[in-house]
TrEMBL record:
Organism expressing this protein natively: Flavisolibacter ginsengisoli DSM 18119
GO molecular function, one term: DNA binding
Keywords on record: DNA-binding
PROSITE patterns tied to this protein: HTH_TETR_2 (PS50977)
Annotated region of DNA binding: 30-49
Entry-linked Gene3D superfamilies: Tetracycline Repressor, domain 2
Name the UniProt record assigns to this protein: Transcriptional regulator, TetR family
The UniProt record lists the keyword DNA-binding: yes
InterPro entries: Homeodomain-like_sf (IPR009057), HTH-type_TetR-like_transc_reg (IPR050109), HTH_TetR (IPR001647), Tet_transcr_reg_TetR-rel_C_sf (IPR036271)
Length: 203
């Protein structure tokens, strides 16, 4: 950011944008809505953030920089596999309840520009999943869990956590569910998903 920009105004814009994105989603949000919520004119909003995409990208990177280290620390910990599954589901779903618009943004960006997007989020590093994958193999060999491809287990866990947020507009439309009821349903999944995963693999 250039020095002429006021940090408090920028924070006010970001706070307003988070609220609008939460209530209206990425597609439903308009720059005018965000300007009104922040109590500024649209020209000033465009001075700080040229487009809705740039504004959303800033918010997403803040979310990623907060959440990814917590996820990676779970993968790299010395916890048992079952504990890691429980912690991952709780951490991931808790974050998505707060920012349900993020998964759709990720999906769109990964499809549109996968290499550029991943570099922006991860830099030149790879997600530290090796220890987790090795642990799955070791616990399989030790007879602690049923034989399963480590990548399949990781994909199963990610899918069960992510899909409801990707499909939330359809789910709410088909069931007539209000947003607060959907959030309550997702709270239940913080315990339900790890139970399903663990029951499917434990001996």
């Amino acid at each position: 950011m250039v020095n002429t920009r006021d940090r408090s105004t920028e924070e006010k814009i970001l706070a307003a944008a988070r609220k609008i994105f939460l209530n209206k989603g990425m597609d439903g949000a308009r720059m005018q809505d965000i300007a009104d919520e922040a109590g500024i004119n649209k020209a000033l909003l465009h001075y700080y953030f040229r487009s809705k995409d740039k504004l959303f990208e800033q918010i997403f990177l803040e979310v990623a920089s907060s959440m990814l280290p917590r996820i990676f620390s779970i993968f790299q910990s010395d916890d048992t596999l079952f504990t890691k599954i429980e912690k991952f589901c709780d951490t991931y779903i808790t974050q998505e309840i707060k920012t349900p618009y993020v998964p759709i943004f990720i999906l769109n960006e990964v499809n549109r520009q996968p290499q550029a997007f991943l570099k922006k989020v991860l830099g030149n590093t790879r997600p530290p999943v090796e220890k987790l994958l090795q642990q799955i193999e070791q616990e399989t060999k030790a007879g602690l869990i049923k034989p399963i491809d480590p990548l399949q287990l990781l994909l199963n866990t990610l899918s069960l956590c992510i899909f409801p947020f990707l499909a939330s507009p359809m789910i709410q439309l088909l069931t007539g569910m209000e947003a607060k009821n959907f959030r309550a349903l997702m709270e239940e999944r913080k315990k339900l998903v790890p139970q399903l995963i663990i029951e499917s693999i434990k001996n």
